[in-house]
């Protein structure tokens, strides 16, 4: 009976939840002292802020070549469906200027391009429109190794001739794009790795046009008790072991698992998005909260 009840709760957990109020700010004296010391978390470890970006960079340099294979293995291929859902919520359109942050391997950007092509070609019976020519998708990633993987994949997919796709090395906390220059902003499985989440959110708000949409797909917190126990065992026992077997790197995948647990819970993260200036903030849990898609609009 307990398993059946948990399954029912899991099935219903993908329902969208609207965040219509601010929650009390979480803070303690020890937390304040921690921030004052200019320290931050790297997984379960506390490190200085100036160390975190280097440590995270080392992780992704190490896993870049096996990143997509590991995503398939860790999620049993579900990450593809989660990204499809992200693009469905984004609803790309011809002529769109879009920024995908922490998207070095191109998984999200390729989906945006394909969706725009599909929409445009259905409307024009396959002819190239001026609006489609105005479309531009930017892939921004702080790690050059991840970008190289993405460029290689783009060439393999025939995107090397695409004029609408650009690759930019950059920091989510200090984007090089102009104010109000983008119609959309996505970040998938990346925001938990930045040192200052609030800075990344502020930058997302800055570069979006009025009416522009922010969407974040991120590994989150499971809200079904029995499933949570199973998920914890899988995360801490299986994922690092698979990382060691496939990528030869247990430590990096141990960090990735720990970083999920340190990431703010869904309601708290929704509050942070709202505090960055976004309106109509909401989130949708998938697979019982294993991942969540948060969204907001710049009005």
Strand content: 15-25%
- Span of the ends, CA to CA: 47 Å
Biggest β-sheet: count, sense, barrel? Answer: 8 strands, mixed
Residue share in helix? 40-55%
Low-confidence stretches: 1-37
Mean pLDDT: 82
Computed CA radius of gyration, to the nearest angstrom: 19 Å
* H/I helix tally: 12
Query: Order of strands across the biggest sheet?
Result: 1-9-10-8-7-4-5-6
DSSP strand tally: 10
Name the structural class: alpha/beta
What is the H/E string? HEHEEHHHEHHEHEEHEHHHEE
What attributes characterize this protein structure?
12 helices, eight-stranded mixed beta sheet, two-stranded antiparallel sheet, 299 residues, disordered N terminus, alpha/beta, 10 strands
What layout of secondary structure does this protein have?
Blueprint: H1 2-12, E1 16-18, H2 29-36, E2 39-42, E3 45-48, H3 49-63, H4 67-75, H5 78-90, E4 97-101, H6 107-124, H7 130-134, E5 136-141, H8 144-156, E6 165-169, E7 182-188, H9 197-207, E8 208-219, H10 225-247, H11 250-262, H12 266-275, E9 279-286, E10 291-297
Helix pairs in contact: 3-11, 10-11
Descriptive report:
- There is one protein chain.
- The protein has 299 residues and is of the alpha/beta class.
- Helix content is 50%, strand content 20%.
- It has helices at residues 2-12, 29-36, 49-63, 67-75, 78-90, 107-124, 130-134, 144-156, 197-207, 225-247, 250-262, 266-275, and strands at residues 16-18, 39-42, 45-48, 97-101, 136-141, 165-169, 182-188, 208-219, 279-286, 291-297.
- Helix 3 (49-63) crosses helix 11 (250-262) and helix 10 (225-247) packs antiparallel against helix 11 (250-262).
- The longest helix is centred in the last third of the chain and has 23 residues, at 225-247.
- The radius of gyration is 19 Å and the shape is globular.
């Amino acid at each position: 009976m307990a398993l059946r009840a948990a399954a029912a709760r899991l099935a219903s957990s993908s329902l969208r939840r609207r965040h219509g109020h601010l929650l009390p700010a979480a803070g303690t004296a020890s937390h304040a002292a921690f921030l004052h010391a200019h320290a931050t978390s790297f997984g379960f470890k506390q490190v200085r802020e100036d160390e975190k970006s280097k440590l995270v960079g080392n992780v992704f340099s190490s896993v870049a070549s096996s990143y997509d294979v590991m995503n398939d293995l860790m999620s049993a291929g579900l990450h593809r469906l989660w990204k499809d859902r992200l693009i469905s919520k984004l609803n790309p359109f011809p002529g769109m200027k879009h920024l995908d942050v922490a998207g070095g391997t191109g998984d999200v950007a390729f989906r945006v391009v394909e969706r725009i092509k599909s929409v445009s070609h259905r409307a024009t019976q396959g002819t190239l429109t001026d609006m489609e020519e105005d479309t531009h998708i930017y892939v921004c990633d702080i790690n050059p190794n991840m970008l190289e993987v993405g460029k290689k994949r783009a060439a393999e997919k025939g995107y090397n001739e695409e004029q609408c796709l650009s690759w930019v090395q950059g920091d989510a906390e200090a984007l090089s794009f102009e104010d109000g220059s983008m119609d959309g902003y996505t970040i998938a499985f990346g925001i938990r790795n930045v040192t200052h989440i609030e800075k990344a959110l502020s930058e997302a708000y800055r570069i979006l046009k009025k009416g522009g949409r922010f969407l974040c797909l991120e590994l989150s917190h499971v809200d079904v008790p029995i499933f949570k126990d199973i998920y914890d065992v899988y995360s801490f026992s299986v994922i690092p072991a698979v990382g060691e077997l496939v990528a030869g790197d247990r430590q990096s995948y141990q960090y990735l698992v720990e970083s999920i647990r340190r990431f703010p819970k869904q309601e708290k993260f929704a509050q942070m998005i709202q505090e960055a200036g976004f309106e109509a903030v909401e989130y949708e849990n998938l697979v019982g909260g294993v991942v969540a898609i948060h969204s907001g609009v710049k009005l």
